[in-house]
Structure formats: C-alpha cells, structure tokens
Amino acid sequence: MLNFRDMLKSYFKIAWRNLLKNKVYSSINVLGLAFGMAVAMLIAFWMYDELTYDHYHANHKNIAQVMITQTFNNEVGTGQAMAIPLGVELRSKYGSDFKYVTLCSWNFKFIVGTGEKKLSKAGMWVQPEFPVMMGLEKLSGNMKALTDPSSILIDHSLAVALFGNDDVVGKTVRMNNKYDFKVAGVYNDIPKNSSFNDTHFLMSWDKYLTTEGWLKRAQTQWDNHSFQIFLQVNDNVDIAKTSAKIELITQRYVKKEEGNEHLLLHPMDKWRLYSDFENGKIKGGRIQYVWLFGIIGVFVLLLACINFMNLSTARSEKRSKEVGIRKAIGSLRKQLIFQFLSESILMAGLAFVFAIILVLIALPFFNVIADKSMSIPWGNAVFWLVMVLFTFFTGFVSGSYPAFYLSGFNPVMVLKGTFRAGRFSAIPRKVLVVLQFTISVTLIIGTIIVFRQIQYAKNRPVGYSREGLIAIDMSTPDLYGHYDAIRNDLIATGVVENMAESSSPTTDVYSNQIGFEWDGKQPGTNPLFGTIAVTQDFGKTIGWHVSQGRDFSRDFPSDTNSMILNQSAVQLTGFKEPVGKIIRFNKKTYTVVGVIDNMVMQSPYTPVQPTIFFVDLNWSNIITVKIKPTSPFKEALPKIAAVFKKYNPASPFDYQFTDENYAKKFSDEERIGKLASIFAVLAIFISSLGLFGLASFVAEQKTKEIGVRKVLGASVFNLWGMLSKDFVILVTISCALATPISWYFLAGWLKNYKYHTDISLWIFLVACVGAMVITLLTVSAQAIKAAVANPVKSLRSE
Asked: Which of 88, 89, 82, 132 is nearest to 105 (CA)?
C-alpha cells in the first residue's frame, strides 16, 4: 500500500512538473477544459431543474390534471378547461381510484389589501382538499381550513408584505375591495420550478360559488368548460389505466356535435416537459429542449477534451525520450498509461476549480436568461460525489487517447534518435479538428435559424396597433358602471387618444363558444368561435382594420344586435358577402355589419382563430387605453393613474403594456435562442483555443523549414498561406458536414410551428464564412509571428 501511495505521489509530482514546464500548452488545456466543464455544469443544472419540475409537491407521482380532447372546425384540440359536474361525477362514481378530486379556478390577479396596503397578486379559488393534495408546507395555521367559506390561505412572502413579521393567523384581508377573508394559515412560498409558483393565496371554492349567478348555473352545465380539475390517485393505482377508464364518461351528458369529448389524465410529472398534444395524445414539448441542451453540453465538453488530445499527441516527439527511458529501465506500458492519465486527471482537477469559479460568475446571468433561480448546492454530498466523478471522467476521456498513443512508442527507435511521428500521425488530430468545427458550425447555424424563426413570427402582421396601448384589469366593482365618465375624464387629460372595454385583452381570447346558427350552415356541424364582447370604441382604440362593411359606432344604437367577424370567421361560415348576413346565438339574432383583418391575439406561430366581436358592456372586464403618440409615458401614466384613483380609490393603479404582453409570447423561443447562442460562442471559443495551440505547435515544429524558405525568398504572405492552408481545408470539410446535418434537424424543428420561416442558403454561407474568418484570425496570429521571425536564429545550429 505504501509503494502504491508513493507511486501515485510520484506520478502527480511528475505531472505537476510537466504542467509547469509547458506553461502555454498547459494553460490552453486547463482553460479549454474549464470552459467546457463550466458549460456542461450549467446545462446539467438547467436540465436537473427541468427534470425535477413540480417535484416540490410530495405526491407529484400520483397527481394528475383532467384534460379534455374535443374536435371543432375539423381540428382536434386538447385543453384544461373542465365542467363543474365532471368533478362531482369523478368523486362520486370513481372514489376507489382517487384519494382527492378538486375543482379550482384559474390563477387570477386580485387586489389584496389590509388597511392602507394594497398589492396586486395572483391566486386561486380551490376546494378544501387542494392544499393537502399539493403538499403545501405549513408555516402556521391550518391547511384544511378552506371548508370555511370566509377563510383564506396565503404564502409567506404575501404574509410578510402585508403584515410584516407579525402572526397573521386570524387577521383580515380584503380582496378586490369586494370580499373579506380571515387568514387561516400561511404556507411556505412555492418554489420557482413549480406550476403553482405564482399562486400566492388560496380562497374557498364554496365562497366562489356564491359570488356570481353564472357560477351557480354552471354547477349543472356539462357544456360550460370554465374550470380546472386536479386529482390524486390512490397508492398502487395506475394513472394510465384510470385515464382509459374515465375517457368516455362525459359522452352520456353531451351531444356528439358539441365536440365529441374524450377525457384523459395528464400526470403532474409530465406537465412541464410533455405539454404538446396531437390528436389527443402526448406529442412532446420542452423535453426536446432538455435533450437538445444535454447533447450540446456533451459536445461542448467533448470539444474541450479534443483540445487536450490534440495538443498532447501533437507534442508526442517532446515526450518520446521520456517514454523511451522509462521503458528501457523497466516501466510497463500500463504504468505509463497510468502516468499519462494521472496528468490529465490533474489538469481536469485544476480545470474543475476554474470551472466552479466560472459557474459562480455566470450563474446569476444564466438564471436571468433561463428564468430560473438555480444555485450551487454547496452542502449536498451527492453533488460533490457527482462532481468528483465528473472530473475523473473528464480527465479520463481527455487523457485516454494520448495515454495509449504515447505509451506505445518503441523505446529502441526513440533512444537511437530514429523515432519520427510519421506522415499519418496527424490524421487523428485532423479528424478531431473536423469534428470540433462540425459541432461548432452546426450550433451557429442552429442559433441563426432559431432567431430567424422568432423574428419571422414577430414580423407577422398582427392586425392592430400595439404602440401606446395599456390594459387594466377591472378587478374591483368600483370600475363597473362608469364607462362613459372614465373615458371622458381620460380623454380630458390630453394624453389619451381613446379608451374601450372588452371581455378579452388584445393579446388573448378568453371565451370560445359553439351554438351559432346561420342560413347555409352545414348540417350536423357545430363550429367553435372565439367570442369577445367590446364597447363601440374598441376598434378605434386598438386600430384594427375594417376590410368590409363598417366598424361599431355610437351613432348606431342597433349595434347591440350586431356582430363583426374576422377573416377566419368569414371563411368558417362560408359567407361570400358577409355584411348583412344574420347569425343566431343564445336565442338572439345578430346582423354582421363588418369584417376585420385577422388579429394575432393568441400564439403568433399558429393560424388565427375564427373570432366574433359584439357589443355588450355586461361582459367587459378589461379596459384598454390608447396613449397619444405625442405623449411620453412618463408624463401620461401619472395623469391616467389619477383618473383611475378617482373611480377606484381603494386599489393601486395596476396596468400592463400591450406590446410587452405580446412580446411574452416569444419568451420561450427567445430564451432557447439566447442560451443556444451563448453555447455556440463558447463552442467556437473552445475550438479556436485548441486551434491556437495546434497552430503554435505547428509553427514551432516548422521553424527551420520557415527559415530555409525565407532565405530562399519566400514572402510573409507565402509563409502565412503555407501554415494556414491545412486548417482552412479542415474547416471547409467541417462546413460541408455541418450543412446537411443542421438542415435535417432544423427542418424537423420548424415543422413544430404551423407559421414558420424557411431555411435559406445564406444562413449556411454566413455560418461557414464566419467559422472560416475565426479560423484564419486564430491561426494567423501564430503564422505571421513565425513568418516574420529572423531566419538566422532558426538556422544557426545548421
């Protein structure tokens, strides 16, 4: 054991001396490995966060959400909106399968207040079992208290914001200046990697049912899909089998033409990564990005390992005498392999130290881009065990090829001085350089395509003007019934061009309905339309474009019985001359007075939904204000806030910019694009670092040849071309390989979007030319340095 310890000590001592002896090459190796390891670690943190999404909830393996698949307008869609009677049916008839079944609302924003403090926070109406089922961590009070309609549960951050560090249980909060609740319990803040992260309070479902008349009616309406249902299966109950069992239970209560409903259970463990559905089946989702970045992480680390291999084998002649002497005095090949592996592991260890520093520096910036709150788990023993294994693995991969290559030298030839690396010895290095730049160029092409797709969707005509629009939720009763007064006061400020109310903002469609009838409608069909109630000023406020007929107007009192269709709705109805046509809905007759261009209100990557607009103040819950282009926001917003304070004094002025809300629709793609671009830059940097090392070695190796050529009259340009030619050829081969590979995978990725860009030839040219320029800049530094050197110094020994 002592001899083995001494041997290890000797190996690492020699490794350390070699590292110090060759500072430039050692620095390149350590720096390259450090960057590669740092990238791999950041990606691993990101993947772990994604793969453990929702795992905060203790029962996550048994929790599922009820989803519904319906067929409308010849398209199959899967959504989360459910009917209240379904929850009752599941609880009463399938009780042996489920431990809990809970109905709840969507996550709505409320004005939460106590005394003078007023905050805008999001929360949900839920049935009493919800907090226990979701495993919320109790800090104080009772997590089962929502059986009392006057109770509310709040999270820790909201409790501190409202009451400081006081005991809040039993204190009163007022919601939307309308409901009073007693705080029955406080739960720990739900972490960022949970689907309920933005849920800051939970209110009693029984209280919810008593607030509005339509909710009372909804308790028996199977076609009113306005709620969510979550459930927890009993232990040893298979979610997939139970999903098949409940698939058709709604069909006895709804007509086939009302959507041909099929139910399914979507397990919590798949909410984040498998959220895309096709024909009622899970198609995929963010999991493709998880695997994509996992592959990128492996490749970037591989690039750093390739640098180590290339530089180690390129300097083989420098180590050949050492190998020859060691073999001559009795060293076995396996001992030499161990020696060289110990050197690479030592370098990997040093690189890991620098990698940790790089991760510490980069993590805050990385969290902002990735929208995460990740940190290094310093006190986690498993993390350190994984990091030790990761370091040894990196060292082994980096050093394996050089170790076997160097240890295989013939000692007789080496000590006779007749050893030469051979004309084919550079082929493996060239292959590795080609592999490096193939990966790098592929990443560059991928990044360009992602950003091009985002820009393509951003440039899509949206059908209205987002500039200067702000949206205000009508969250309190104080804002209702004062439409004309608020509008007149806003226009009187001199900074507002117009104002309108609607049942949906311009960046979403909250309501979808069937039951529309018209002459010529195809029998047996029940098309689905988006339905938005607006005031007469809505179109003028947002600047939509009327292509046929007219806009709604205060000059036409009959507009309360009128409709405006978008182009998609006209296509669905089949109207050739839509203006003047009659549509019947909810036992009421409407006349089509106008047609507008399609407005992109939902996903910018999909076709625009058929949508109908009609005048109805009773539905309105969104105020849209158009600020004059000549009025700076800093001046306009205080004046607008003063008007809202006049009519809604108990609530803060909470608004959202329409253009910012629209920009959020691109957030996932932009986040992926930014991360991919960072990794592409780092991949090029690591590859260039290795290229720099190889170029300096080649220049050093050809010092005498360069001297002779200079004496014979070769110019600096000739010598630069000679030293750069091989590297240019290698990068050209890389581009030739990267082009079809990237085209194949990116064409498949773009097919996920119905509205997508094309793949142009110039993208490949830009990526390849960029890689070539970077290569020439990297190699030129060493090539020119060698070319301008004094040949007398290099030929003195001759």
From this structure: 82
